[in-house]
Amino acid sequence: MPHIPDPRIHYQHKRQPKREIPIDLCKSGAAHAAGAPEHGINAGAAATIALNAIGLVRQQFRAKTRVNAFVSHGGDVTNIIPARTVVQVEVRAPEIDEWREVKARVLACFEAGAIATGCEWTYEATEPPYAPMVQNPVLADIWDRNLQATGRELTSAALGGGSSDMGNVSQVVPSIHPGIAVLGSTAIPHNADFADAAATPAADTAIIDGATALAWTVLDAALDAGVRGELLRLQAERPEGFTRTANWA
After folding, report:
1. Alpha carbon distance 85, 22 (integer Å)
2. Is residue 12 within 8 Å of 179, Cβ to Cβ?
3. Average pLDDT value for residue range 174-194
4. pLDDT value for 52
5. Which long-range contacts (CB under 8 A, 24 or more apart) does 64-70 make?
6. DSSP E strand stretches across 52-119
7. Quick check: 160 pLDDT over 80?
C-alpha cells in the first residue's frame, strides 16, 4: 500500500498508534454567570484545567509522543455558566505500551479538572485504535528495488507522526506502507498546498510509479519460491480469526 505522507520523502518506516477519545464534562450546574455564578458548576473551567494539565505534563512525554485536543462544545451563551463541555482528544506514541501509559495520564488530567470543579465526566472512543506499522523487511527490500527501477532515487526519512489503520493490518499480515514523493513539491500534509500538489502531473506520476512498484513487488514475492514459502508459512501459523480482532489493543 503506497502512500504519499509528505511530498518531500520517498519512504518511511513506522506509523504511530492512535486513538481518538471524546471527553464529556458535565453536571447539572448551569447558572447565570453574573447573577448567581456561585450556584454554577463550570464544565468549561473543568476543560480548561484539563487542557492546561496536559500542556504541563507534556514535559514528561517521550519524543514522538503527541496529544492533540480541542473543545468541540463549550457552552451555549456567554451569560450562562456552561453545564456541559465536550473535548475531542487523540493520543499518539511510537509504541503500544507507551501509548497506553500516555492515554492513562491524559485521562487523569480530565479527572483532575472534574474533581477541581465538581463536575462529572465520561469518555468513549470515537474511532478504532491504530496500531504501529510493522514493515516486513523482505517485502520492503523488494519494494525499494522496484521503486528504484522506476527511476526514482531512494532517500532516508525520519519517523513520521502519522497514523493509519494499515498498522492494524500489519500486526497480523506481512505488510509494507511505503511513502512516495510528489517530486518538486515542498508542501506538508493536511495543508491546502498539499491538496494543490496532489492535483499536479507530478502527483499523477507518483501514483503511477507507486502502483507499478507495488505490482512488481507482488509479482516478485509470488515468483520467488523462498519469499512465497515464508509468507505462506506465516499465514499457516496465524491463529484462526486473528485478522478479525484487535489482538494488540
Report:
1. 10
2. yes
3. 90
4. 96
5. 64/16, 64/93, 64/94, 64/159, 64/161, 65/92, 65/93, 65/94, 65/98, 65/102, 66/16, 66/90, 66/91, 66/92, 66/93, 66/161, 67/91, 67/92, 67/102, 67/106
6. 66-73, 84-92
7. no
Give the amino acid at 89: V
Sign of the Cα torsion 25, 29, 34, 36 reads: negative
pLDDT of 111: 94
Q: What is the 3-state secondary structure (H, E, C) of 69-87?
A: EEEEECCCCCCECCCEEEE
- Would you state the cell numbers that stand for residue 120, as one nine-digit string? 462529572
Q: Is 176 exposed, middle or buried (0-12, 13-18, 19+ CB in 10 A)?
A: buried
Q: What is the value of pTM for the model shown?
A: 0.72
Which residues is 225 bridged to in the sheet? none
Distance from C-alpha of 10 to C-alpha of 206, rounded to nearest angstrom: 10
Which amino acid makes up residue 10? H
DSSP assigned state of 209: H
128: DSSP letter:
-
Residue 139, C-alpha cell as written in the block: 517485502
Does residue 26 have a pLDDT over 70? no
Distance CA 6, CA 198 (A): 11
Cα 136 to Cα 193: distance, rounded to the nearest angstrom: 32
